[in-house]
């Protein structure tokens, strides 16, 4: 779920939070041998003509009528005009850049228009805003967030019908009953070649699942996944949340999966059984709950000093400091650091470099403090970071290769120690600023997968014009990252942003880079059932 909270310039107080659900119909078919693979991007305009990306839905294969499971959570300010743009693309590759993907249409509107309609359907238009994008439409449903409870699920199935020779590739969809029909609340991952699948644990907000009413019907569909997008229905059942919870404390609550087309057969019983092994309702705490409860964000910076940056004395180098005292590295440090430092009480930041030859030993290091003081690598405030960077730069010999895993593992050690305290008091944020291709990709993937189980997030800002496809691979928005050995990350903790997209706008850079951080902090502590250190008195 994309959620946000970047302060809106000129706003007074957030009136409420609103959850947006997106679906489309009759999208243009841009692929020759299959259907379009759509994804929806939400852009927000906070001033003038500057749009910044707020978030993306998942991509759905071979579908012209997508219902997106990923939601957008927006701060709603009654007194402000909040401009929004919903752009739909046909995704043709695995890169983050949408420039080489087919454009399927967009609309511009305000959050006020969406909220006042509750459910708004508009025709999609091409970029000239005059010509319609075929017969494509987009529907946006808005719902105020007043209930922060979540339902944690553990679900399996047994004896599902075979849909292709001797197996199926099953996944589940959960739907909420609304006045206008069934609305998609959650879609599980696909379990390949398995008639007795066990899906990864997942959580759904009660507002998305049943509007907070435990007696409202919920529909669960079980499908066999097809790459063509023509998924075959295995069966369905309906139940209330109260009924789904019946198996939490005893044995699994079991529901027959019924395919209505097979009911005519005399010997038909069901198409399998869905087992709700656990369905536990818990209160979900917000990012602000944890921050106001005393949680500290520990901010570490890692700077790329490899030779591919160029000689710092040359104006063509990414490390060249121009007459105004800036380069892309410094701009990224200022933009992100100025936001993060407000959440760190002592404002002392450890800063490390990697990929350089050190002046004292001539050895190449991938984890050295830029103040050259291993026992005290801290810089006082963002200004201290800038000064340490400026002072160390002439003393280094830029070298290589570009290894990320040492610094990720370094920060992970401290995050692991904090987790052992079993409190929501410390969260670690690593900002890596780099210009190029990772040379220890397998080790980096393993380090990130391990870090995903810790109170830790990683922000990567790519400077210069290099190919950043590997960074985009690490920012696994659509599917969880896997290590080379096949271990799967427990959550997405990497946010990658190319600096070149935000030239001249450090505010937009910070907003884009930090957009996912509040949700990563809150979701981690909630998943470990850690309450804010100073919690609501009603929770005690």
SSE blueprint:
Layout: E1 2-3, E2 16-25, E3 38-47, E4 50-56, E5 72-76, E6 83-90, E7 102-110, H1 111-117, E8 119-125, E9 132-144, E10 149-158, E11 170-178, E12 181-187, E13 202-205, H2 206-210, E14 217-224, E15 232-240, H3 241-244, E16 253-256, E17 273-283, H4 287-292, E18 296-304, H5 328-340, E19 348-354, E20 356-357, E21 364-365, E22 368-369, E23 378-380, H6 381-392, E24 397-398, H7 405-420, E25 426-434, H8 441-451, E26 456-462, H9 469-474, E27 494-498, H10 506-514, H11 517-527
Parallel strand pairs: 1-5, 18-19, 18-25, 25-26, 26-27
Antiparallel strand pairs: 2-5, 2-9, 3-4, 3-6, 6-7, 8-9, 10-13, 10-17, 11-12, 11-14, 14-15, 16-17, 19-22, 19-23, 20-21, 20-24
Helix pairs in contact: 5-6, 5-10, 7-8
Description:
With 540 residues, the protein is α+β, with helices and mostly antiparallel strands. It folds into 3 domains: 2-144, C2 domain (Immunoglobulin-like); 149-283, Immunoglobulin-like; 305-527, 3-Layer(aba) Sandwich (Rossmann fold). The protein has helices at residues 111-117, 206-210, 241-244, 287-292, 328-340, 381-392, 405-420, 441-451, 469-474, 506-514, 517-527, and strands at residues 2-3, 16-25, 38-47, 50-56, 72-76, 83-90, 102-110, 119-125, 132-144, 149-158, 170-178, 181-187, 202-205, 217-224, 232-240, 253-256, 273-283, 296-304, 348-354, 356-357, 364-365, 368-369, 378-380, 397-398, 426-434, 456-462, 494-498. Strands 18, 19, 22, 23, 25, 26 and 27 form a 7-stranded mixed beta sheet that branches. Strand 20 and strand 21 (364-365) form a beta hairpin. Helix 5 packs antiparallel against helix 6 and helix 7 (405-420) runs parallel beside helix 8 (441-451). The radius of gyration is 25 Å and the shape is globular. The relative contact order is 0.10.
């Amino acid at each position: 779920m994309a959620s946000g909270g970047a302060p809106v310039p000129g706003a007074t107080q957030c009136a409420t939070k609103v959850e947006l659900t997106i679906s489309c119909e009759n999208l243009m078919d841009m692929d020759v041998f299959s259907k379009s693979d759509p994804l929806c991007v939400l852009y927000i305009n906070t001033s003038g003509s500057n749009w910044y990306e707020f978030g993306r839905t998942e991509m759905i294969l071979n579908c012209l009528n997508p219902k997106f499971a990923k939601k957008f959570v927006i701060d709603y300010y009654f007194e402000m005009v909040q401009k929004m743009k919903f752009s739909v693309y046909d995704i043709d590759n695995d890169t983050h850049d949408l420039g080489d993907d087919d454009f399927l249409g967009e609309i511009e509107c305000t959050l006020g228009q969406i909220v006042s309609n509750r459910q708004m359907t508009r025709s999609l238009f091409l970029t000239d805003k005059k010509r319609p994008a075929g017969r494509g439409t987009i529907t946006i449903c808005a719902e105020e967030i007043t209930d922060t409870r979540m339902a944690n699920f553990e679900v399996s199935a047994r004896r599902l019908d075979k849909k292709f020779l001797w197996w199926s590739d099953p996944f589940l969809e959960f739907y909420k009953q609304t006045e206008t029909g069934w609305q998609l609340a959650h879609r599980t991952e696909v379990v390949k070649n398995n008639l007795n699948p066990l899906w990864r644990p997942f959580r759904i907000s009660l507002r998305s699942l049943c509007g907070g009413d435990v007696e409202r019907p919920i529909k669960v569909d079980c499908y066999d996944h097809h790459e063509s997008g023509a998924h075959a229905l295995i069966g369905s059942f309906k139940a209330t949340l109260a009924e789904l919870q019946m198996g939490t404390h005893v044995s699994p609550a079991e529901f027959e999966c019924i395919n209505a087309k097979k009911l005519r057969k005399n010997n038909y019983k069901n198409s399998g059984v869905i087992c709700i092994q656990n369905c536990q309702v818990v209160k979900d705490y917000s990012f602000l709950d944890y921050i106001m409860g005393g949680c500290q964000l520990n901010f570490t910076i890692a700077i790329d000093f490899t030779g591919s940056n160029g000689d710092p004395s040359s104006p063509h180098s990414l490390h060249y400091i121009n007459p105004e005292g800036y380069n892309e590295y410094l701009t990224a440090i200022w933009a992100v650091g100025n936001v993060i430092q407000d959440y760190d009480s002592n404002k002392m930041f450890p800063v490390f470099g990697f990929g350089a030859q050190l002046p004292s030993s001539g050895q190449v290091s991938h984890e050295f403090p830029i103040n050259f003081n291993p026992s005290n690598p801290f810089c006082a405030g963002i200004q201290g970071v800038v000064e340490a960077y400026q002072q160390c730069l002439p003393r280094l010999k830029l070298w290589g290769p570009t290894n990320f895993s040492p610094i990720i593992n370094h920060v992970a050690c401290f995050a692991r120690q904090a987790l052992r305290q079993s409190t929501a008091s410390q969260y670690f944020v690593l900002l890596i600023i780099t210009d190029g291709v990772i040379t220890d990709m397998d080790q980096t993937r393993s380090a990130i997968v391990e870090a995903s189980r810790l109170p830790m997030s990683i922000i990567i800002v790519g400077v210069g014009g290099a190919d950043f496809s590997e960074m985009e691979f690490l920012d696994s928005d659509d599917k969880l990252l896997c290590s080379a050995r096949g271990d799967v990350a427990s959550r997405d903790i990497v946010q990658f942003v190319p600096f070149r997209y935000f030239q001249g706008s450090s505010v937009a850079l910070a907003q884009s880079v930090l957009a996912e951080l509040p949700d990563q902090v809150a979701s981690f502590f909630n998943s470990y059932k850690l309450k804010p250190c100073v919690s609501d008195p009603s929770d005690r």
